[in-house]
Write a structure and sequence with these properties.
single chain; alpha/beta; six-stranded mixed sheet; four-stranded antiparallel sheet
Length: 237
């Protein structure tokens, strides 16, 4: 049975489960002079708690834009996004930032580590912003889980690409998020390191039942997810 069919069966069996994410008729356009460029056109989807979903499609199909809308990093021109039953695109920026804390985590292709902070400080930062009194011990624990216990005082430039992505994963999971978004998480890594990172992310998904939504060009990676959606010219196909 292929991944799409497995995903359909999972969705059916989870029909009564609380949805981690619901997106309803999302549209996103940008103005180009005197015309509007349609990036996403009437996209709807649901993702069950604990599910893994891959968003695939050619470059320019709208994958990263869709991920940004689902993650609350951008707002749609029309349509709604809900996390765990709560609509987010009507929240103020401050309320949305607060809602992200403890609900979602992010893993980016370019790692997005702050260069002046150590590995430990990078993982601690979102915990401190959430006023977590155990930020240092929690960050230290997660870096240890990532195999970086001896590297916590290193700056990003002193770490390999794979180590930097492990720091980013520790940062994403340290606050125990319900949902993790990953945008081409292996895009800047060699094949062996990329495989290690993916194994790690799927293990965390299994162990913690964290919903994982990722954008990827890697069809082998996409096939490992419970379900895939494919975009073409801003539409689900």
């Amino acid at each position: 049975m292929n991944a799409v069919n497995e995903g359909a069966n999972l969705a059916a069996s989870s029909s009564n489960a609380k949805m981690a994410i619901t997106a309803d008729r999302l549209n996103r356009t940008v103005s180009l002079g005197d015309r509007e460029l349609v990036i996403l056109d009437d996209v709807s989807l649901t993702v069950a708690q604990g599910e893994t979903l891959a968003i695939v499609g050619a470059s320019g199909s709208g994958k990263t834009t869709l991920l940004g809308l689902l993650a609350g990093l951008d707002r749609p021109n029309a349509g709604t996004v809900s996390w765990l039953g709560e609509t987010i695109n009507t929240l103020s920026e401050d309320a949305l930032a607060k809602k992200r804390q403890g609900t979602v985590g992010f893993v980016f292709q370019s790692f997005q580590l702050l260069p002046a902070l150590t590995a430990l400080e990078n993982v601690m930062l979102p915990l401190e912003l959430a006023a977590d009194a155990d930020a240092e011990s929690r960050a230290t624990e997660w870096l240890g889980r990532m195999g970086l216990g001896e590297r916590i005082d290193h700056l990003p430039r002193q770490l390999s690409g794979g180590e930097q992505q492990r720091v980013a994963i520790a940062r994403a999971f340290a606050a125990n998020p319900s949902i993790v978004f990953a945008d081409e998480p292996t895009g800047n890594l060699d094949t062996d390191t990329g495989n290690e990172i993916i194994e790690l992310m799927f293990k965390l998904n299994r162990d913690r039942q964290t919903t994982l939504i990722l954008v990827t060009h890697d069809l082998d990676l996409a096939a490992r997810c419970n379900r895939q959606i494919r975009l073409a010219r801003g539409k689900v196909v």
